[in-house]
Design goal:
CBS-domain; globular; CBS_dom
Amino acid sequence: MVFTCWKIKQVLWLLSPRVCLVRVHEIRDFFWDGIASRGASWLREEPIEEIWKQVILVPVCGGMMVGALNSLHVALKTPSEGTFLSDLKAASRPFLKAVAAAITLGTGNSLGPEGPSVEIGASIAKGVGNLFECNKERKLSLLAAGSAAGISSGFNAAVAGCFFAVESVLWPSPEISSLSLTNTTSMVILSAVIASVVSEAGLGSEPAFRVPEYDFRSPSELPLYLLLGILCGLVSLALSRSTSYALTAVDNVQKATGAPKAVFPVFGGLVVGLIALAYPEILYWGFENVDILLESRPLVKGLPAHLLLQLIGVKILATSLCRASGLVGGYYAPSLFIGAATGMAYGKFASFAVSQLDPTFHLSILEVASPQAYGLVGMAATLAGVCQVPLTAVLLLFELTQDYRIVLPLLGAVGLSSWITSGKTRKRDIGDKMFSVKGNCSVRSPSNLSGLSSSSVLATGVTHATELCELESSLCVDDSSTEFKDLEERISVSQAMRTRFVTVLMNTLLTEAVALMLAEKQSCAVIVDNDNLLIGFLTLDQIQEFSKLVKDGSAQSEVQKLQVSEMCHSNCEKCSVPWTVTPDMNLVSAQRIMARHGISQLPVVSEIVEDHRGHPIGLLDRECIHIACRAVATRESLRLSSIPKRHRT
């Protein structure tokens, strides 16, 4: 079986969805005109009254087709009686997604191909592992091999593909301790090499984008690159937040209107078309548009700094809406586009500023490099910030430029960008982390609050359920996310929440609250008022932190008399609740809220009264979600395994 799995990795990318990128070019040639090497810039030279219908209708048509494919994809997720039919449905979904991605990108919508390539490659690897009945460790190895091949073929960068697999699949996986790292790493390397060879044979040996001529003038420039890293981190954070808000907005609109999900990709395509009337560079055109930003194509005029700044904003908006609307694509290409625009604009402003200051202050020691150098570093820094793959970003750019001089400024910028966004762009849960929230204090302390209770509540009358990686779903390829991905949309919060939890009032002593949490084996408590309306949230970590602060200036007897209200009023953030969920929400929506607010637990309320408050009926955390998904998956597995026996009787 070990030898078989090794052979699987050798031929894995012969079945790879990389072939769909050829279809992207064919679809683009069918719908669009122009010269490929000029990207979408040719649209800027055409009279708008002649091209406006084409610019708007092509992305809309792509959205219509993707909406239909998404509906078919959802239909294939429904469980079927019979193992063969279920396996056939599961095998068809990755290829269906490849077609949807090709249509999305071929019609110019603002996403990228590398994310779907990695995700589809991982899905194929998982399916092949199931076919050959590989164990969990071997399946994880296959996932790593498929992921490495996706990046390797996407950028003709085998080394970056290997580190992507290690950084995004093997390191975060709980199975890593039991894997043979030497064996797995060698298989990942082999898969990346084969993918690069197949890609070169089918699509040529040129890199994904042309590396422009650039130079590094002086080590004194390093602070400028560090400042660029901070700027790219903020831009990455803006893209992450924009996507989160767009996902939530589309979800709320869908629930409020009851509109079918198939119509939202049409809306996303319409927005892209309208924006492209003024900014055609946002259309996906391979990496030719990135070449235009970097001014690496001959006979193609570069863009001024003020237009580059505008492109950053509209590209963030278009990409977020495309992802939220249901169009299929990844964030690697948009991240590189946004990073190139950020770096080029920054480089041009830096050159202008130094040239203006030099006659006055004689800054001959500060020689500023060409904007292309800042554009390249900005690409890697933004990719690292958005997708949280700093090593992959560094090695990708180093492999494409093959210039050791770029490493020092690159490491500094990528490190700062990744650090700025690391606390916001979360890919996986950190097991015991409690609430860390921001916002205004809304804690109230009625005069007659007293007492505390331990509640065991069963939610009734509710109909009808891993971490949501909001940007690149291909980064979430650990075992739990691939196994439970289809279940999270079908499982409701009421099926996964904890119904036994501790409640306290504002005048409850902290010592009593801790005693009750200890008795109930709970690490948190819900703060309510006399009407059992949610006020806030209390954790053992918060109590311990608060006790350290008051011990220095208070006697032991005074510490024993501290109440919940005193701790909450000392810091508005400590007890506030940023958001709540209701029992009829599905787990995808709940995890989206967790990711948006950077939290790992959510109170479940029967109905939202005001300010996201209500009567608490349960708690939802990531452990609950994992257990619920595993239980439902096991139940469905038992149901399917019992079907052949019924047929025989």
